[in-house]
Design a protein that fits this description.
This protein is of the alpha+beta class. It has helices at about 10-30, 35-65, 70-95, 105-140, 150-155, 160-175, 175-195, 220-235, 275-290, 305-310, 330-345, 365-370, 375-385, 415-420, 465-475, 490-520, 525-530, 535-550, 555-585, 590-620, 625-675; strands at about 210-215, 240-245, 265-270, 295-300, 315-325, 355-365, 390-395, 400-405, 420-425, 430, 435-445, 450, 455-460, 485-490. It has 21 helices and 14 strands. The protein starts with 8 loop residues before the first helix and ends with a helix.
Length: about 675
C-alpha cells in the first residue's frame, strides 16, 4: 500500500498467491508428487519468490502509467519489459534447487520434494504473472476511478524515497574505494564464519526430557537394580520433576528399544526446564561413575517425532574398534585400555566401558574327539539339548512366535559336564568331561557387526568443527598395534560427508547460474556482478546465526538457498534495467541512478515482506518454530544485508566494470569531432 501508493495493486498481488497455489497443486497431481509436509514446505518457501514476481510486474505497469501511457499499453509494455529477466530468475531458482536432489541419504530425501515443489511453484508463478496479473490489473483499473483506500494511502504513503536513495548512492560513489574494500572484507568474514561455525545435520531442539540407559555389567538382582536407580533419580533433588523407570528384563513385541536384560535399566526423566537438562546429564554421569565405575551409561534427549522419522538424534561419534587380520573383536583387556585412554583424553564426552558379563566358555578338544572317535556334531547337539538350547522349530499362534526347545531337567553346567555322556561312532558312551574344558570368562555382552566384520563400539558425545583431526587423535590412542583397526560413524561423519557433497553440488549450481546469466545479459562479465552478491549475503545470514547462537545445518542451508534465490532475482532485474536504459542512449552513471530508482520499491517491498513474514518464528515456542528458526535467521540476516547490497553495491560494481569502456567511447567520440 505505502510503496505503490494504491489500494488495489496489493490486492492484485495477493490474488496471485492462491491462483499460483491452486495451479501448482494441479501440476503436483500431473507429476505424481504427493502433498506432504516437505512438498508443502517447498510451496510455502516459494511464496516469497511468487510475491517477488507479482510485485515486479505490477510495479512496472504502474511506472509506465505514471509516464503517460494508456492503461492497456502500460499493461502490455510493462509486462513485456520484464518477461526476459523473470524467465532468467525462474531458471536461476531451478539451477539452485534441482542439483540439491542429488544429495545422498536423508538430506536428498528432504530436498527432493521441496526442490520439485519450489520449481513447480516458480514456473506457475511466472505463467500467472505474465498472463493473469496484467488482465486482472486492466479489469481493476479500466473505470479510471480512485477508491477511498487509494486516496487514503496517497495521503500517508512514503514520500521522497527516491531522493533519499539518490543521496545514498552519492555517498557510496563518493567513498567507492572504502565501500569496495568493506564488501571485500565481508566476503572474507563469510569464509571465516563458514569455517568456524559448528556444523550439524539438524538443529538442536531444546528439550526438558532425557532418557538414561544403564547396564551395570554385574550379576545383580532386581531389588539391587531398583535401589541403584532410585538413588540416581533422587540425587539431583528439585531438578527432576518426574521419572519413570524400566528395571530388569523387559520384552516388548512392537517396541524393541525397551528390550532389556536383568542387569539393565532405562529411566525417563522430565527436568525442571530445558536449562536443567544438561546439568542433570552431567550429574548422572558423575554420580554413576563415582559409585559404579564399571557401569555402561548412555544419556540422551528423548526423541521427538521429527528425530524418530529422520534419525536426527544420531550419536555424534562412534569409534568402531576391530582386529584387522582376524576380522574379530579385540580382547577385553585391550579394549578396556583404549577406552581408559579415551576417557582420560575427553573426560566430558560421556565415554563408557563396553558392556561386559560373566560367561561360561566350553572348549571342545579336537585331539580328544579323534582319540575317542566322537563326531563333533554329535557332541554339539548333546550339549545343546543338555543346556536347553536345542531349538527344533517354531510354533506360530496369532502374532506370537513360540520356540520349540528339546530339553531335559535343568541342571548346573558343571553337573552336566561331569555326568553327561555322548556316543561315539561305534555306539559306546564317552564322558563329556573328557572332551570339553570349562572356563569362566568376563566377556562382551553383545558384539556388533558391520560391512567390515565384527567390532566394539565406543560412543562419544563430542562437538568439533574438525572431525578429521579428532579421528586421527583417536587412532593414535590405539597405540603401535598394527592389527587394530578403528573406523568411525555418527552424525559428525555423516555431516562431514553431507557438506562435501553440498560443496560439489553448489559449485555445479554456480556454474549453471553463470551460464544462465551470461545468456540473459549476453555478457561474460556481468554475471560476476550478480554472483558476487551471494557470498556477501551469506555473510549477513551466518553473522545473525552466530549472534543467535545457532549452527550450520540442513535447515540453515535451506534458508541460505531460498534467501539467495530471492535476493539474486532483484539484482538480475536491476542489471537488466540498467542495460536497457544504456541501450536507449543514457550515459553509464545516469542509467545506474535511474535504473536504481525504478527497481528501488520492488527490492524494498520484497525484502520487507520476507523479513516480516519470518520474524515471528524467532520468538515463537514449540518444536516447529525451533526447527524453522535457523531458516528464519538465514533469511532475515541475508535479506537485511542483501537489500543494501542490491541497492548500492551492485550499481557500484557495475560502474567499476564499465567506467573504462565509457571513457574510451567518449574519447573516440571527441576524436571524431576534431576530424
Amino acid at each position: 500500500f505505502f510503496f505503490l501508493k494504491d489500494g488495489k495493486s496489493p490486492l492484485i498481488i495477493g490474488f496471485s498467491i492462491p491462483a499460483t497455489l491452486v495451479i501448482s497443486l494441479l501440476f503436483f497431481y500431473l507429476t505424481g508428487l504427493s502433498i506432504n509436509i516437505i512438498s508443502l514446505a517447498g510451496l510455502i518457501l516459494g511464496i516469497g519468490m511468487m510475491i517477488d514476481n507479482s510485485i515486479v510486474i505490477i510495479e512496472n505497469i504502474t511506472q509506465w502509467i505514471d509516464r503517460g501511457l494508456s492503461l492497456i499499453e502500460a499493461c502490455v509494455r510493462g509486462t513485456n519489459e520484464v518477461i526476459t529477466p523473470l524467465i532468467s530468475s525462474v531458471l536461476v531458482t531451478c539451477a539452485v534447487f534441482i542439483p540439491l536432489i542429488f544429495l545422498s541419504g536423508i538430506s536428498g530425501a528432504l530436498f527432493y520434494d521441496q526442490a520439485i515443489a519450489i520449481v513447480i511453484g516458480q514456473g506457475v508463478s511466472l505463467l500467472v504473472g505474465i498472463t493473469l496479473l496484467p488482465t486482472v490489473y486492466y479489469l481493476f483499473y479500466r473505470n479510471g476511478k480512485e477508491g477511498w483506500l487509494t486516496r487514503l494511502v496517497k495521503k500517508i504513503s512514503l514520500k521522497r524515497i527516491e531522493e533519499k536513495y539518490e543521496g545514498g548512492m552519492n555517498f557510496f560513489f563518493r567513498y567507492r574505494r572504502a565501500t569496495m574494500i568493506t564488501f571485500g572484507l565481508i566476503i572474507l568474514l563469510m569464509v571465516w564464519l563458514f569455517i568456524t561455525l559448528e556444523k550439524e545435520r539438524f538443529p538442536d531442539i531444546r528439550q526438558d526430557e532425557l532418557v538414561v540407559s544403564v547396564d551395570w555389567n554385574e550379576n545383580i538382582g532386581l531389588e539391587e537394580n531398583l535401589g541403584r536407580i532410585r538413588q540416581m533419580t533422587e540425587s539431583p533433588g528439585a531438578l527432576v520433576l518426574q521419572s519413570n523407570s524400566f528395571i530388569g528384563e523387559q520384552q516388548f513385541l512392537f517396541n524393541r528399544d525397551y528390550d532389556l536384560s536383568y542387569t539393565q535399566a532405562k529411566v525417563y526423566i522430565k527436568a525442571k526446564d530445558y536449562r536443567a537438562q544438561e546439568t542433570l546429564g552431567e550429574e548422572f554421569y558423575g554420580f554413576l561413575a563415582e559409585r559404579w565405575p564399571g557401569a555402561t551409561v548412555s544419556i540422551a534427549a528423548q526423541q521427538n517425532i521429527f528425530e524418530k522419522i529422520f534419525s536426527a538424534s544420531e550419536v555424534p561419534l562412534v569409534a568402531e574398534v576391530s582386529l584387522m587380520k582376524e576380522k574379530e573383536v579385540p580382547p577385553v583387556e585391550v579394549m578396556t585400555r583404549i577406552v581408559a585412554r579415551m576417557q582420560e583424553q575427553w573426560p566430558g564426552a560421556g565415554i563408557s566401558n563396553p558392556s561386559l558379563e560373566d560367561k561360561i566358555l566350553l572348549r571342545i578338544d579336537p585331539d580328544r574327539l579323534l582319540l575317542y572317535d566322537v563326531e563333533p556334531m554329535t557332541l554339539y547337539n548333546t550339549l545343546k539339548a543338555s543346556l536347553n538350547r536345542y531349538n527344533i522349530g517354531q510354533l506360530r499362534a496369532s502374532y506370537e512366535i513360540l520356540p520349540i526347545v528339546l530339553s531335559g531337567k535343568e541342571e548346573k553346567v558343571g553337573d552336566i559336564i561331569a555326568t553327561a555322556n555322548v556316543s561315539n561312532k561305534t555306539g559306546q558312551p564317552v564322558p563329556v568331561r573328557e572332551l570339553v574344558r570349562i572356563q569362566r570368562i568376563h566377556d562382551y555382552k553383545t558384539i556388533r557387526g558391520g560391512m567390515n566384520g565384527e567390532y566394539v563400539p565406543v560412543y562419544m558425545n563430542v562437538e568439533t568443527n574438525r572431525p578429521a583431526e579428532l579421528t586421527r587423535r583417536i587412532r593414535s590412542l590405539a597405540g603401535p598395534d598394527q592389527n587394530l583397526n578403528v573406523s568411525f560413524s555418527g552424525s559428525l561423519i555423516t555431516g562431514q560427508k553431507m557438506f562435501r557433497e553440498l560443496a560439489i553440488i553448489l559449485m555445479v549450481a554456480l556454474m549453471l547460474l553463470y551460464f544462465i546469466l551470461a545468456a540473459q545479459f549476453e555478457s561474460l562479465t556481468q554475471p560476476f556482478i550478480v554472483l558476487l552478491e551471494i557470498p556477501i549475503d551469506i555473510a549477513g545470514a551466518l553473522l545473525l546465526v552466530l549472534i543467535w547462537g545457532g549452527t550450520i545445518n540442513i535447515i540453515t542451508m535451506i534458508g541460505l538457498i531460498v534467501m539467495s534465490g530471492v535476493i539474486i532475482n532483484d539484482s538480475i532485474l536491476k542489471v537488466d534495467t540498467i542495460n536497457n536504459l544504456r541501450a536507449e542512449g543514457l550515459g553509464l552513471k545516469e542509467a545506474i541512478y535511474q535504473g536504481g530508482s525504478r527497481r528501488l520499491k520492488p527490492i524494498i517491498m520484497v525484502a520487507m515482506a520476507s523479513i516480516f513474514s519470518t520474524l515471528p518464528i524467532l520468538f515463537s515456542q514449540g518444536m516447529g518454530s525451533e526447527l524453522q528458526r535457523p531458516m528464519a535467521l538465514a533469511l532475515i540476516g541475508g535479506m537485511s544485508l542483501g537489500t543494501v547490497v542490491s541497492l548500492f553495491f551492485i550499481p557500484l560494481a557495475y560502474w567499476y566494470i564499465y567506467r573504462g569502456r565509457e571513457r574510451r567511447a567518449m574519447g573516440m567520440g571527441h576524436k571524431g569531432v576534431e576530424v
